[in-house]
Amino acid sequence: MVDSLKKPGFEELRPGIKVPAKETILTPRFYTTDFDEMAQMDLSVNEEEFEALVAELRNDYNRHHFVRDQEFEQSWDHIDGETRKVFVEFLERSCTAEFSGFLLYKELSRKLKDRNPLLAEGFELMSRDEARHAGFLNKALSDFNLSLDLGFLTKSRKYTFFKPKFIFYATYLSEKIGYWRYITIFHHLNAHPEDRLYPIFKFFDNWCQDENRHGDFFDALMRTQPQFLNDWKAKLWCRFFLLSVFATMYLNDIQRTDFYEAIGLNTREFEYTVIEKTNETAGRVFPIILNVQHPEFYPRLETCVKNNENLRAIDSTNAPKFVKTLKKLPYYISNGVQLAKLYFIKPIDMTTTHGQVR
Ligand SMILES: [Fe+2]
Ligand SMILES: [Fe+2]
């Protein structure tokens, strides 16, 4: 009885099946793309490197990695209250993000199978990994007596259409940022085992190598299409995607500081590390990266954090909808202004360093 009082209530679709978190601009997105354009892509410019990456994926290094050990076999009721809530949210977000990768890669592999077999195989192998990741996270959710109905999620979510070029920028970044997130958490918990609340974090080392390989796959794939990387439009779009990926993560995570603190991390320090590393990594293939050391970079993101707090506070009142909208307007405008100003911070040109040892 006492236990159930301490457990935060989650809305359920059916007993034990969690209602998916409400979709917002900050929740993981599901993508679809122009399959014909993708099928017609000529890989010859960078085919050798690309083939080598597909061969790496074929090796399936993590075939035996995702096996739950004894440490999972215990009650997790001692993770309770707010910690339990943020923990379950973390698992859900991660599971949704992994699953959205699975769906996209699987669909691509099916649609390209006959027309672009090498590309199709790469996507098939990555979907294998993402299915494992999502399944492992969903199993973890079941330790908290919840799970996600992935079939329901497939049907109920809205899909965002992106041209292949934008799929490449966005998924490349989400794989690399995923890599840096997992590895940073892993290293921290390796140094501070007392903060390792739950055994899933032990798996993050080999796990993040999957994400790293996925990122490298897109790196090599983008190099087969140099027109996606070498003109002024590419510079503007890379800037846009870098900023949106960083801002989304920052706003999401700062809102969930409790989770990072529960595993002994300083959330802001964590953000600085992940953003800096991902930015640096992206510079190996993107023509520009962001100047994240610029004195205005984080203060502007912090203004957005405050705006979002205000937006949520307004949302939680009982005021009529139009009053809420009116009250929210200045915060939306301010967010727009902050993001525009962030976008116009002069980026760092990377084209001169390309071609040197990677
Ligand atoms: Fe993954
Ligand atoms: Fe991945």
UniProtKB/TrEMBL annotation:
One of its GO terms (molecular function) is magnesium-protoporphyrin IX monomethyl ester (oxidative) cyclase activity. Signal peptide: none annotated. Residues 89-222 form the Rubrerythrin diiron-binding domain. It is an enzyme of class 1 (oxidoreductase). Its EC number is 1.14.13.81. The keyword Acetylation does not apply. Pathway: Porphyrin-containing compound metabolism; chlorophyll biosynthesis (light-independent). It catalyses: Mg-protoporphyrin IX 13-monomethyl ester + 3 NADPH + 3 O2 + 2 H(+) = 3,8-divinyl protochlorophyllide a + 3 NADP(+) + 5 H2O. Its cofactor is Fe cation. Catalyzes the formation of the isocyclic ring in chlorophyll biosynthesis. Mediates the cyclase reaction, which results in the formation of divinylprotochlorophyllide (Pchlide) characteristic of all chlorophylls from magnesium-protoporphyrin IX 13-monomethyl ester (MgPMME). The keyword Repressor does not apply. Belongs to the AcsF family. Keywords: Chlorophyll biosynthesis, Iron, Metal-binding, NADP, Oxidoreductase, Photosynthesis. This is Magnesium-protoporphyrin IX monomethyl ester [oxidative] cyclase. The gene is acsF. GO terms for biological process: light-independent chlorophyll biosynthetic process; photosynthesis.
